[in-house]
Amino acid sequence: MVTQSITVSDKIRNRAAWISALASIAIFSLKVAAYRMTGSAAVLSDALESIVNVVASLVALYVIRISAQPADREHPYGHGKAEYFSATFEGGLVLSASILIIYESVKSLIFPAPPQKLEIGMAIVSVAALLNLLLGLYLKHVGSTHQSDALKASGVHVLSDVITTAGVIVGLGLVLLTDIQWIDPVIAILIGLHLAWSGYNIVRESMGGLMDEISESSLQDLCEALEKNRQPGIINIHQLRIMRNGRFHHVDAHLVVPEYWDISKAHGETLEFEKSVVKDYVFDGELAFHLDPCKKSYCPECDMPDCPIRLQPYQSRSPFTVKSLTAEVPESN
After folding, report:
1. pLDDT tens profile 102-116
2. Model pTM?
């Protein structure tokens, strides 16, 4: 089993979470200032979303510290699933903010209050949009590079906030050019609907992680690591499953080995194979193989040299694929 400890990646994730929290507070302050100057419903909707960013960034900061803790007796697979809770919480906040934004925008349509100082407001929210763009790209990069679902979710949300702010700027510009006041709350309603869709997607993806939904990209990455480190005696792998625990993955599968290997030989070869695969896998993790004897049924695809029990000549070795690895029954049988 791979032992988890505080790594360079943990420190980078933690630093990114701190940057996200501080930047979110600064950006929220800018948007509040813009709303107080303009009284715009669209700017208010943008500021309400930024409240979500602030709360979510603080939650992510706590969760990332928790998820970095090593496995213990109470949590034998580590604390990585805490990141999925963070992403689910953030998605829920986004959905709640979208409802509040639509409610306030409808009120503005019924009881209109013309926005003021639109030029200044547009300038302030433009600065906020630029800061959010840089922050979102940074969080997505760190989340993808260092396998943090919480940071990736925050990055996606922050980038969606950039789209929201761009809509606000367009809306304010149209009001400024046309003097049609209802454009402002209508833009805010559209922003609310966009946030609702974004929040749903965040919740959907994080719930998939909590329930160990199949991740095709993770399976493909693991398939490549298994094929790269394949050696004579590693005949076939099937019934492979991945339990995702944040950046730490527990993998179990059935591994077919030569039936004439004794326990010591099979254990040693399998252990070396596991170590080399984990080293090349993009996530931290462990492999647990259930060993199956070949039963002389794999001779045509077994490249084991000088096999004393071979019944048929070796022809070719079938490469590992996601389909073959996850099959309940070996494809050759």
Report:
1. 887 888 788 877 778
2. 0.58
